[in-house]
Structure formats: structure tokens, C-alpha cells
Design brief:
This protein is about 75% helix and about 0% strand. It has about 240 residues and is mainly α. The two termini are about 25 Å apart.
Length: about 240
């Protein structure tokens, strides 16, 4: 997340975050329990979804104080929290038995996540609570969704193990920034990244749809991966030139 020092947010902001977290956890638990029964999932499904969501929240809230200069968590971050909740539900399918119902549910949840994307930015501008934290929180939720979808595409037999690169590129870039400081420098905003993110999520989501055969899903995932590699290459070259 944003910043280099993790710490609990101050009292007014902390109360707002706790309220959002408690409500979100209640909704997540209820939906996960229903999904487990209706889809005949393993007993660990609920635990996986809850553990991932709690981990996301703990990693995120420690950077609020330094990167969110407001006393309220705000509706935009609440919307992003809702998206993170849905991502946790999708991620819970990792390691579950492959079935048409599981794949269809994962695809439907991803469609809902995509539909909510952009709402947080609009809410941030409308409420006057836009922050570096909110922008990064939204981006990391998208990155986790891409990683999850790439694993599911492989797990459901819709693409080969190469599809995991779709999710690993983002985290490889972060690791590269720790090893090579010039890779960690800020990048200028570009619409290209947003477009490629939409293409990546849309392509992987289409790939896991049960009605799409592997002969079609693999090429779709490959095109989305090619677009992502192209975008990362442009950014890495730009950073390298700036460092030079």
C-alpha cells in the first residue's frame, strides 16, 4: 500500500474504519456461508474468504493516517471495501473443486466487481475525500482480482500455467522496485493503464465462463496478457530512461 510506515489511524478515522469493517465482515460471512451450502463447497471456503478479506483490511488501514488526511473513511473507500469483499469471495474458489456452478458464480461476482469499478473514484470526487490511499487501495484490489482470476483460469482448465503471468506481473514489478529503486519511482497517470486493466479483467472473466470452451478461452486470456505485457514494457522503458 501507500507509504512506508504502518500504524493505526487516529481515533475519529479509526472509528469510521471499524464500523465499515464490522458491517463488511458480517455481509461476507453471511454470503460465504450461503455460497458454501448452495454450491457444495469445501468447509474451508468460508475461512479462506474471511482470512483474505481480514488480511486486506489490516494491510490497508495501517496506511490511512499517512495517506488519507480526513477524519472519515468516506463513501469511496467504503465502495472499494465492498469490491474487496467480492474479490475475497471469488478468491475463496481457489483450491475448490472445479464445477460449472463455481465457475459461473466466480464470473458473476467478477462482473459485479467490474460494474462497481469507477464508482469509488466518482464518490471520492463528489464527497471531496479523494486521497492517495484511496487510489492505491482501488489499484491493489484490482491487482488481487487479476491474480485470482488468472489462478482460476488455470484451475478450471481454461488456459495453461502461462496465464498466471497475468497476475504475477504486478507483484513482480513491486519486487523489482524493492531491488531496483528506479523501478519504484512514480509514473505519470495514463489512461492506457486503466484501459488495459479493464481488458485484463474482462478477458480473464470471459475465460472462466463455463460456456466458453478452452479452445476459445485460452486465446482470449493470451490477448489480455499480451496487452498487459505491452503496458508494463512501456512503463519500465519510461522509468529506465528517466533513471538514465
Amino acid at each position: 500500500m501507500v507509504g512506508s510506515t504502518w500504524r493505526f489511524p487516529p481515533a475519529p478515522l479509526r472509528s469510521s474504519v471499524i464500523t465499515t469493517a464490522v458491517l463488511a465482515l458480517g455481509v461476507l460471512l453471511g454470503v460465504a456461508l450461503v455460497a458454501r451450502v448452495r454450491l457444495s463447497l469445501d468447509g474451508l471456503y468460508v475461512c479462506k474468504a474471511l482470512a483474505l478479506f481480514v488480511t486486506m483490511l489490516l494491510l490497508a488501514v495501517g496506511y490511512l493516517a499517512a495517506n488519507h488526511p480526513f477524519t472519515r473513511f468516506g463513501p469511496a473507500n467504503q465502495a472499494t471495501t465492498a469490491r474487496a469483499l467480492l474479490v475475497a469471495l471469488v478468491a475463496g474458489f481457489v483450491g475448490e473443486h472445479s464445477s460449472t456452478s463455481a465457475a459461473a458464480t466466480a464470473a458473476a461476482l467478477t462482473l459485479a466487481i467490474t460494474g462497481l469499478d469507477g464508482l469509488d473514484g466518482w464518490l471520492a470526487r463528489r464527497s471531496g475525500l479523494a486521497s492517495d490511499f484511496g487510489a492505491r487501495f482501488d489499484m491493489e484490489v484490482d491487482a488481487l482480482l487479476v491474480m485470482t482470476l488468472s489462478i482460476l483460469a488455470w484451475q478450471f482448465g481454461k488456459a495453461g500455467p502461462w496465464v498466471l503471468l497475468s497476475g504475477l506481473l504486478r507483484y513482480g514489478f513491486l519486487v523489482g522496485g524493492w531491488l531496483l529503486p528506479w523501478l519504484a519511482r512514480p509514473l505519470p497517470p495514463r489512461r492506457r493503464r486503466q484501459l488495459v486493466c479493464v481488458v485484463q479483467i474482462g478477458g480473464l472473466n470471459l475465460a472462466i465462463v463455463p460456456a466458453i470452451h478452452a479452445s476459445a478461452s485460452a486465446p482470449v486470456a493470451a490477448v489480455a496478457l499480451a496487452a498487459l505485457i505491452y503496458s508494463f514494457t512501456i512503463d519500465v522503458v519510461w522509468l529506465w530512461r528517466q533513471a538514465s
